[in-house]
Amino acid sequence: MDRLNKFIAASGYTSRRKADDLIINGKVKINGKVIRELGTKVDGNDIVTVEGNVLKKEENKVYYLLNKPRGIITAVSDDKNRKTVIDLIDTDKRIYPVGRLDYDTTGALILTNDGDLANILMHPKSNIDKVYIAKVKGLIGKAEITKLERGVYIDGVKTSNAKARIRKYDKKTDSSIVELTIHEGRNHQVKNMFAAIGYEVIKLKREKVAFLSVSDLKSGEYRELNIKEVKKLYNDAKNR
Ligand code: URA
Description:
Elements: E1 2-3, H1 4-10, H2 16-24, E2 28-30, E3 33-34, E4 41-42, E5 48-50, E6 53-54, E7 63-68, E8 96-97, E9 106-112, H3 115-122, E10 130-137, H4 142-150, E11 153-154, E12 157-158, E13 163-170, E14 175-182, H5 189-196, E15 201-209, E16 212-213, E17 222-224, H6 227-238
Parallel strand pairs: 9-15
Antiparallel strand pairs: 1-4, 2-3, 2-5, 5-6, 7-9, 7-17, 8-9, 10-14, 10-15, 11-12, 13-14, 15-16
The structure holds uracil (URA).
């Protein structure tokens, strides 16, 4: 339960002081009834109108960085009742993932209830870097790295410039570890980029989204972003 003036101010309509004036002047209704008492309390189920405008209570914005484990789906709910990334976060806010990691992909995933930030980050022009570590079958050479960097065709559309580098080749398992930095976010993009040059991804981790790395988070762990990080995300996405 909140005081009426606090509720009005939290909606962004006006300040608490001005809300008091509106209440005294009979401009505020709760559930259709004019309310003039300043101390009146409201809860989330009440419908508050000010000068005929229905107010929505503004929710506090929350931002999380999750190190997504394998075997969890990136969705808000699942019709087969499988565990989702939302189930891993202890919050009463209605958050959703920003973008998508495959069921078997691990790593950095932002979750928030801030629709503006989510839209900006997911916009094709946002150009936020995402750093992936891919374990691929076989030996990757310089020629393949160049192809990945210059762009490959997926469904007839060329991927834009990327950065790639070989981290290691394991002779025993005949597999290469490649770091691939892309800023697009097409469906299964990394797996499809390797497929386009004839390689299969056997393990995939997103190490970083923008400047946010999950190197300090264990699998399944998450942390809240601080205000500086949120501001930087807004800035980095806009200034591209
Ligand atoms: N690219 C993929 O192929 N899978 C992911 O989960 C993310 C990027």
